[in-house]
Design brief:
Chain lengths: ~450, ~475
């Protein structure tokens, strides 16, 4: 019998069993004991040929419907150069393990070094790691880092305006531990820092905020870092890295930790994953940073080379005393971001960010003229904005009718927060990829529904 | 042969990419205000300014300095570096999947949900568990998720005193690290002379403060814990739960299930057992599968099949919540589903049978000249010791590993598990042919000959790589972690 991806012939099996000194493959499993050995085959389908699998997948794929996405909330449809897919698909990149053996992994290690460098440049902070699972898990790691950096702390302040799913992930992390998450409330669509001084205490390890926030609005952190530092606490700012081409970087706000997700930099929508979390910190926090770090050094002959470094922080050395349990990260996704940024350069990043800004404002401006919807808060935004309907039925009709025309008009905030109070809020995202024609299509359909 | 940093090839004004011109009405563009000045970025970031061909050559050269499964045998123990079928790559690149947004209306993502739902069904069958979640992005992330569920389970029952997790010394480093992240105290369980869990030591540590025992079975020595049913009875009798680290699941698929062994929760590594590529360290996927006892605690949202199609379920009160931003590493999940479709029930079983056959064959051959201290037969992997080489010639496991690089092989896992001195942990996987294994054995024996004849040269290996052994002390003392 021929099994897929298994090269053994009958003769091979016989010769190998003989070399081992057993009669059958079953004998190799005799240690499992009769109680555990399965008598029947596992109840999944029989194998298929490549062609059969492809046909089956094609029919499954047809049940996905594509549209023109004006959807964001942490996952955006940006233009990606063809180099990203082509180069990140090179087989040795795809099929390598974590580069523990530096001498045969120099290419991978150097690419990670370049990734770390670019994240440092974009965030303005001193050192970055090789990636984390996603933006939400980067927030979890930031919270852990803060707590570890301040003795006897147990509270992490988190803005109510971070992504609702990131907040859920943080809540799960705190569940059943000594750590407490205290929310900084929002006022008018942005974090309300008026109350911040009253929330600070010796127990507060730090504050996590996000800009653009969960409504797409940009927040002003003037004076916040000083306030936290005076309390011996740290500031972590989560940001879509593409937005940092035009808005203040984490370092420019005085943050200690920069976090977020690089999905906007070269990664496809992919039903939400893989994306790629990033983290950069001040030099002083390097030894507390979670995850892998690549460093440059030399060999005996003085040749420059790259290696995993500061491994004494990590789980395979420190076990229960490690800074994090992370092992596998999102290396190939980080590589895609590195290739994307290598192709764009800073000029390309700024252009993508500025075009997204202009196009989002164009759509927002014209939607705001229509009856039944408002741009509720008059706050600066970048590529995503909240459109508030005055009637839930109208909103459903709006989404349905635009979907019928092939337009995915936005994300219902209530689908993220599960709160009735958010029922009327639609988050609309516009990137540089949306053409003028697509914008006009959206507006024409909106005018028809909302007239 | 070294490759400069791309930033060092930069030339001001050179571009690898351009955007279509902004074509909004001129009046709008002119009237559009800038961001408020206090929100504007001041300092430009230094990114490469190069041409497209520069980018292509740079990353193509870098890729030539990397060894993957596609380049050659990769017998890295506990990592299951099997062949990653091209069909999976092809399907994961289909725009019908890559261009789907995670928050699209549910009626438009039925294809993605069907992949996830059907994969969960298949994984339930393969592991003998009730149901699971695909949210965790990696093995360690799965451990975290499973342990969170255990924590919630005991909190719900009011058993707040269960704060300890028992972990054998031979366990993967992520086990204690994950337990610690979740807030458990880690207690080590000793191994006996055979390399298995020391039952007496386990018994002495089981009490009302123990939440769970984390176990890898077969363990990291490649040995099956033959007393597993007894162990599971002991743990359950003491009121604890049993956690299965699925890193070594490639040994038993279709032959036995963790469910039958008595495990309450397990994580799988789709990037090991189910053939999705490791990508140089990720993205992986670490599904967590549970029995009925823990099912209510699974992360949200669950996927349910109703008359009107697949829907999300958000209303489980006992759920631990969310562990990932969206639904997990979907494109990895998709590749694993393709693998299972292709292999089927018989193929999955054959994979494990041949993985075990290959490991035993390699152990039999290598065992002629190097000590394999534990076990007569092994499962999918085995651990040899270079301690004799070290005594006789001063040649360490690390030296042997580096010499294998010169032979064109990725070395086995070294210095793990800690039970074995100068450990070399081999996992050939089912992908390698007998000829491929024989060639590896020949290379390995050449290295053993060299240890005898010319140990000094061996200690300087590798010699044929772009760089030799790197000064790791300097990397820490003089950190150079960015350009």
């Amino acid at each position: 019998m021929i099994y897929p991806y298994i090269p053994h012939t009958d003769a091979d099996r016989r010769a190998m069993l003989k070399a081992i000194g057993v009669e059958s493959i079953d004998e190799l499993f005799s240690g499992l004991g009769a109680d555990l050995l399965l008598e029947d085959s596992i109840p999944i389908s029989h194998g298929r040929t490549e062609d059969e699998v492809q046909r089956m997948i094609n029919s499954i794929a047809q049940r996905n419907v594509r549209g023109i996405p004006f959807l964001g909330c942490g996952c955006y449809d940006h233009i990606t150069p063809a180099t990203v897919k082509a180069l990140s698909s090179l087989p040795s990149f795809v099929t390598a393990y974590t580069p523990y053996q530096a001498e045969m992994s120099q290419g991978l290690l150097q690419a990670i070094y370049e990734f770390q460098s670019m994240i440092c440049e974009i965030t303005g902070l001193d050192v970055a790691n090789a990636s984390l699972y996603d933006g939400a898990n980067a927030a979890v790691e930031a919270a852990s880092l803060m707590l570890a950096a301040k003795r006897k702390s147990r509270v992490v302040l988190v803005s109510e305006t971070i992504h609702p799913f990131a907040l859920k992930v943080l809540t799960t992390w705190a569940l059943g531990t000594e750590h407490t998450i205290t929310l900084v409330p929002q006022q008018g669509g942005i974090a309300d820092f008026e109350v911040l001084p009253s929330l600070l205490s010796d127990e507060v390890a730090g504050l996590i905020v996000q800009t653009p926030n969960c409504y797409g609005l940009l927040e002003d952190y003037t004076g916040i870092a000083d306030l936290l530092h005076a309390n011996g606490s740290l500031l972590a700012i989560s940001a879509d890295p593409l937005s940092l081409a035009i808005q203040k970087s984490q370092a420019e706000w005085g943050a200690d930790i920069a976090i977020g997700d690089t999905q906007a930099l070269g990664l496809p929508l992919a039903f939400g994953g893989p994306s790629c979390g990033y983290m950069a910190v001040r030099q002083a926090l390097l030894r507390r940073m979670p995850g892998r770090v690549v460093g440059a050094t030399v060999d005996k002959e003085g040749r420059r080379g790259y290696t995993l470094t500061f491994q004494a922080r990590e789980q395979h050395i420190k076990r229960e005393r490690a800074t994090s349990n992370i092992c596998s990260n999102q290396a190939l996704a980080a590589l895609m971001t590195t290739i994307h940024l290598s192709s764009l350069g800073w000029g390309g990043m700024v252009e993508a960010a500025e075009q997204s800004y202009a196009k989002a404002h164009y759509l927002a401006y014209h939607l705001a003229q229509l009856p039944g919807v408002t741009l509720v808060w008059d706050k600066p935004f970048w590529c995503e904005f909240p459109l508030v309907f005055n009637d839930a039925k109208k909103m459903r009709k709006f989404l349905q009718e635009l979907r019928n025309e092939g337009i995915f008009a936005g994300v219902r905030l209530s689908s993220l927060t599960r709160k009735n109070s958010d029922e009327l809020v639609l988050l609309v995202a516009v990137t540089e990829k949306r053409s003028r024609e697509e914008l006009e299509l959206y507006l024409a359909a909106a005018r028809r529904v909302l007239k | 042969m070294s490759e400069p940093l791309l930033i060092d090839l930069s030339k001001s004004g050179r571009k690898a990419y351009c955007y279509p011109p902004l074509d909004l009405p001129r009046g709008f563009e002119q009237a559009l205000p800038d961001l408020p000045i206090e929100l504007q970025r001041q300092k430009a970031a230094r990114l490469p300014e190069v041409a497209e061909l520069d980018v292509v050559r740079h990353f193509t050269r870098l890729s030539s300095l990397v060894h993957g499964v596609d380049n050659g045998m990769y017998p890295l123990g506990s990592c299951t570096m099997k062949y990653n079928p091209k069909l999976g790559e092809h399907i994961a690149a289909m725009e019908e999947f890559t261009q789907i947004h995670p928050l699209q209306d549910i009626s438009t993502v039925q294809g993605c949900l069907s992949v996830m739902y059907n994969l969960l069904e298949d994984l339930s069958s393969i592991t003998g568990m009730s149901w699971g979640t695909l949210q965790p992005c990696a093995g360690a992330h799965g451990e975290y998720t499973g342990l969170k569920m255990i924590r919630s389970y005991f909190l719900k029952r009011g058993e707040t005193e269960r704060t300890k997790v028992l972990i054998p010394v031979s366990a993967h480093g992520t086990n204690p690290a994950s337990a610690s992240v979740v807030g458990f105290e880690v207690v080590e369980v000793k191994s006996n002379k055979e390399g298995l869990v020391d039952i007496d030591d386990l018994a002495s540590k089981l009490d009302h403060t123990v939440a769970a025992l984390m176990l890898t079975n077969p363990n990291t020595l490649g040995l099956f814990e033959k007393d597993i049913i007894k162990i599971s009875e002991m743990v359950h009798k003491a009121g604890g739960l049993l956690y299965y680290d699925g890193a070594n699941m490639n040994a038993i698929m279709g032959m036995a299930t963790p469910g039958d062994m008595g495990f309450d929760v397990i994580h799988l590594n789709l990037h090991k057992t189910f053939s999705t590529p490791h990508g140089g360290g990720g993205p992986g996927s670490g599904p967590v599968m549970v029995n009925d006892r823990l099912r209510p605690f699974l992360p949200k949202p669950d996927i349910e099949l109703t008359d009107s199609g697949y829907v999300y379920r958000w209303d489980d009160e006992d759920s631990i919540g969310k562990v990932s931003m969206f639904w997990g590493n979907f494109l990895v999940v998709l590749r694993a589903y393709v693998y299972i479709l292709r292999m089927g029930s018989e193929g999955i079983k054959a994979a494990s049978r041949h993985a075990v056959l290959n490991a035993n064959y390699l152990a039999a051959k290598l065992g002629q000249r190097i000590s394999i201290p534990y076990g007569k037969l092994c499962m999918h992997e085995f651990v040899a010791s270079a301690s004799v080489l070290k005594e006789q010639y001063g040649v360490t496991a690390q030296d042997v590993a580096k010499a294998l690089i010169d032979e064109g092989y990725h070395p086995p896992t070294v210095y793990f598990p800690h039970l074995v001195d100068e450990a070399l942990m081999f996992e050939p996987t089912e992908s390698e042919s007998v000829e491929s294994l024989d060639r590896f054995v020949e290379a390995f024996f050449r290295i053993l000959d060299m240890a005898e004849d010319d140990p000094e040269t061996l200690k300087e290996a590798p010699h044929r790589t772009p760089v030799g052994r790197l000064d790791e002390v300097r990397a820490v003392k003089e950190p150079d972690v960015r350009y």
